[in-house]
Amino acid sequence: MLPEFKIAQLRHFVWVAELKGFHAAAEKAHRSQPAISLSIKDLEGKLGEALFEKLNQKTTRAELTPFGQQFLLQAKELIAHHDRVVEDMVLLAENKTGHLRLASVPSIASRVLPALLSEFVGETPDLHVSFFDDNSNAVLKMVEEQKVDFGIAHLFHEQEHTDKTFIPIWEDRIGVVCPNDHPLADSTELHWKELRKHRLIGNGTSRLLEDSEARPLLGASQFYISNMISLIAMLEAGFGVTTLPWYAFPQESKTLTFIPLKTPTVIRRIGIVTLNSRSLTPPAKALVDFILARSQQGDQT
């Protein structure tokens, strides 16, 4: 017979592991240290393996065993799933219509989704929405780990994602972004080799070039900045130039210029990503249908 885990015990284990000690975990749990130690011992008994190298209450630092390191990931996943279920049920008990979770790349999150979500939520005022924005890799990971109902992202190699369904909706072109007073700023279009003469800044979307003839640029970037706010600040300060998709270019900027990259012409496709093995919740399906309907009307192109 399989052991039955208590969520409280799993939380105690994660806190001891993350805080590196039973005393700190006890303070976080508002329990006594002996109570936390007993909770962990009971969990170890169910598992049949030790989770920590030292279980002496006087030990100030708790180190995970190799088994404990493996179990930590699973425990976090179980807790996250439990909390999502509880949150959804609480909303239903409060006569809410449900909870919708989605993640999107920042460009679509800032340029397209505000208007779409405003209209959609206006028709479903009791819907609770959790929204996350991050790069495509992070969005895909949230989809895979079922932390969100669906994602909006670019698949770098679609053939490697047979476990997902991808519905392309938006397209934008890759270009070079530089300050208005930069030597490249007066160009109407650029060849990738022209960028070799200038300091390059890599970013989360630079990977879009890896399957093109501009691939050598990926190894030529002197700096890499993943955060878009920091990237824009460095560009505005004249620190260098970068490549970005059109949707990611800050339209409100009065100091930066976007120059289309002609050779090669690289197009980014962004769309809705779902897991094949998981059906969408009614609120998630309603939003997906809403986005598709609006995109077919041409409102978001």
Automatic annotation (TrEMBL):
GO terms for cellular component: cytosol. Keywords: DNA-binding, Transcription, Transcription regulation. Coiled coil: none annotated. Residues 5-65 form the HTH lysR-type domain. Pfam families: HTH_1, LysR_substrate. One of its GO terms (molecular function) is DNA-binding transcription factor activity. Belongs to the LysR transcriptional regulatory family. This is LysR family transcriptional regulator.
